[in-house]
Batch of 2 targets.
Target 1
Amino acid sequence: MQDTSILGAESHPLHLHGFNFFVVGQGFGNFDPKKDPANFNLVDPLERNNVGVPSVGWVAVQFLADNSGVWFMHCYVELHMSWGLMMAWVVLDGKLSNHKLLPLPADLPNGLADAFIDKNPNRSGHGYGFVRFNEKQNI
């Protein structure tokens, strides 16, 4: 997650519902996908369910998507949600019966169901908020 588009004095405290995650890296400036992952702490990273994305910086987290459902991720600063600092992760069904999403309610308004259905099951999900059950996510 990166905050280099708007110069400001405050960080963005992000929270992910339904999961704890590991903070594997953070820094200032733009994230460099060729250099920065080499410095990730994959041995003993901090475990959290919220993290501060530094102003003019980035943070990388990793979590195991093992809790099927639709999970909200958002900035705690309410005004920032109006800027788009919120999203939903849709963690799709796993193979076991207790890893299945419940069916959508029959009385769900028309059109709303489309927001919860992955129309391309071969998609990796990165960047769309769709993840496969038990898939490690680096964001």
Note: The longest strand covers residues 57-65.
Target 2
Amino acid sequence: PSPAAPAAPAPAAAAAAPEGRVYASPMARRLAELRNLRLGGQGSGLYGSLKSGDLAGAAPLAAAGAVAAPAFASAPAPAPGAAFLDIPLSGMRETIAKRLSAAKQTIPHYQLSATVNIEKTLKMRKDINERLAKEEPGLKISVNDFIVKAVASACKRVPTANSHWMESFIRQ
């Protein structure tokens, strides 16, 4: 049997450059894909990312027979026998992780659970939804709507329940 014919490059390859990852806006990537353009170089966006206006000088992609670079750099292969893969954090993810960790470590937390009989609430919800089906088809009230209303009312009645720890004081 003869070897299989080479596959055509994936459309997502329009957003890649041979030298590595290219930072471009989603609109620039989409336009490059539609116009069959290769993204590369320094753009006019934040930190040099490419914007759709930067595509005027973009070179066309290589011929269909050429092998295109992948749209995103692949993650490093795990070591033999490793059960996990370490993925580097972006700056934004790193900041979010640090802040969430700090919040969990420095702000007092507590959990509260309660059992509530909501049979009357469910009956009221059913009646409201039946009425709404006639007046506003497609509109429905969920159990969550009742919970949000109850929490908002409780926060007005008991403002200490919605207090925030602020290092040197409690904000109410």
Note: Residues 11-60 form one domain.
